[in-house]
Amino acid sequence: MSAPHRNSLQPMLDRLAQRTSLSDQDSDALLSLPHRRSHFDASAYIVRDGDSADSCGVLLDGFVYRHKVTGGGARQILSIHMRGDIVDLQNSLLGYADHNVQALTQVELAIIPRSALLKLCAEHAAIAQAFWRDTLVDASIFREWIVNVGRRDARQRIAHLFCEIALRQEAAGLCEGPNYAWPMTQEQVGDATGLTSVHVNRTLQGMRSEGLVTTSKRRVTIADWTGLQTAGDFSRAYLHQTREAA
Amino acid sequence: MSAPHRNSLQPMLDRLAQRTSLSDQDSDALLSLPHRRSHFDASAYIVRDGDSADSCGVLLDGFVYRHKVTGGGARQILSIHMRGDIVDLQNSLLGYADHNVQALTQVELAIIPRSALLKLCAEHAAIAQAFWRDTLVDASIFREWIVNVGRRDARQRIAHLFCEIALRQEAAGLCEGPNYAWPMTQEQVGDATGLTSVHVNRTLQGMRSEGLVTTSKRRVTIADWTGLQTAGDFSRAYLHQTREAA
DNA sequence: CGCCCATTTGACAGCTTTCAAATCGCGTGG
DNA sequence: CCACGCGATTTGAAAGCTGTCAAATGGGCG
User: Fold this and answer.
1) Residues near B115 by Cβ (< 8 Å), separated by ≥ 6?
2) Residue A1 touches chain B, beta carbons under 8 Å
3) A153-167 pLDDT, tens per residue?
4) Chain B residues with CB inside 8 Å of A151's CB?
5) Cα(B92)–Cα(B102) distance, rounded to whole angstroms?
6) Residue B53 banded pLDDT, cuts 50, 70, 90
């Protein structure tokens, strides 16, 4: 799983192969994509709203988040990303960015030119389908986030976020046991859940005192997984982490 | 534009061709997709959360909406769809539905088998790309909805929804002038914006008295387009209605 | 050791929700 | 053509979750 990478793009292949079966030939072609590595410091902007884009980044290490800023200056985080995630397919294919992508931690990216990606897709239908599917899963997660901020209270929203990040780190092979990286400040948790940092703080205190989670220096330990899922009205189906369809 | 359809699937072609240029050959292949027509009455379920799916519907006439229901029984509407929209690519490709799709009005659908769709995509890279792009635009709209329910107040949320539905109806050739179909009850507007129907009612009264919009029998007239956009913090970029990238 | 950012805490205001109950609108049947 | 019935829209009053605005405390890094 987390074996040493013979190739920079291995995390992307692992991710795609999780949901779509790819032949050796497809896999090789994918790993042979031209790309360059790129490093970003924490809080650096990777993509800015409005940028025109002609390349696409694959996250090799670290965490990033997407966000938008309203006319009133409020920020809403749209998603959190980790190793293997394809960071800006959206912006790349649609021509310009409709949101920001920013580093949450130090980050390593592989940057792939759009033209190479499209050529690969044209020549390998299975790969095209894998990318498409990845986009569909992203969309599914966005839908769940709409539900989260639209119809859940503060406690549920935060618990739900904990559950999602935990399962996705497990799927990416980034953790062992119920202890996970937690690269967000309370203010960022608020921006992800549509709450203020003050309210996040108070709600988190409640969750800790109930023995659901414990936190310390950018890490979180889920003390009561069942309880946390219940508290967050969490059901993992929307993550589509298994290969259901043909 | 809204010329008589020689073919049932014409609305889908129109939609895709809006964002991706397709050759005559591609277009013909698309229109030749095997499909059957299907009718649904208002409020009928088209897809249920958890259903396994092996076909995909294209909306030919009428309005539908996606929604999820929380463990507590609250409903959150995720998107509204109209002529030309591809209704359940998501569910079809991912194998099972992670949300419900329900008719808002009487609805005509063209149902296409998944296998035929995948075959077409494998043979026509441009079409595969067009579908992929359509999925990316859907995702962009979901992202904007996260912002809407997460960081805007009641007035902004509702105004934003009016703006979106108006522009999309224009793009689909469904209206002339500032008068639009409005197939939702106030309760459904609440479910789409994360509010209660009571609060939607009071907020709408305010907007009407300010001269932003007028409503009557499932229709809405936007009296002050600029004012409504301002009130809704609305910016159309996220709809990606033009063909920006190559 | 000291600075800076993140976390906490307090008091209070406010937007939204709740829970009914009253009206309205309109398709249906007499 | 008018009465009936049911869903949608309105209205009221009160409660509540979350936001606001500072200010204090804590922790990590240079």
Assistant:
1) B54
2) no
3) 999 999 999 999 999
4) 70, 72, 74-76, 194
5) 16
6) confident
